[in-house]
Amino acid sequence: MWYLITGLICVFLIWNNNKERNASITKYAIISIIWPPLGYGLWQAEKPLINDEKRYGGKGWNVLKWFAIIHTIMCVVWGFYGMFLGAKVASESGSDAGKVGAAIGTGLGIMMIMLVWFFGVVGSLILGLIVKKPVVEEATK
User: Fold this and answer.
1) DSSP string for 23-65
2) What are 66-102's pLDDT values in tens digits?
3) What digits encode the pLDDT tens for the residues 19-66?
4) CA distance 50 to 140
5) What is the pTM of this model?
6) 93 by DSSP, 3-state: which?
7) CA angle 111, 81, 93 (to 5 degrees)
8) Which helix (H) or strand (E) holds 131?
């Protein structure tokens, strides 16, 4: 699952870079393989702007904003994946005790994912609001 998410983000970075940008994306792809929300956030904060694109809030705000967005998407995917695996384990269990254990374990796992999501998003948004600047960057023609 991790490889699928990181692969999709790297493919999107390469595809987005080929739209008139001509920027070096090697470091963003490597960072995205290690930690996808950070690599994509850095790309969004530092990419060359084209045509009528605008970027608000400065580099720190953009990195943390995109970190929160990608982190949320990843946690939702992990949550659904965990629920499907828990349902699979429960259906393969032969006894009622095994089904109850699978349900409890799935619930605890989903709670852990929700905690990771909550603290990641709230922490990044608080830091982002602290470092946000009243700056508007516009594309040069």
Assistant:
1) ---HHHHHHHHH-HHHHHHHHHHHSPP-TT-EEESHHHHHHHH
2) 889 988 988 998 899 889 988 888 888 888 888 888 8
3) 656 567 777 777 777 777 888 788 878 777 777 778 888 888 888 998
4) 7
5) 0.77
6) coil
7) 85
8) helix 96-131
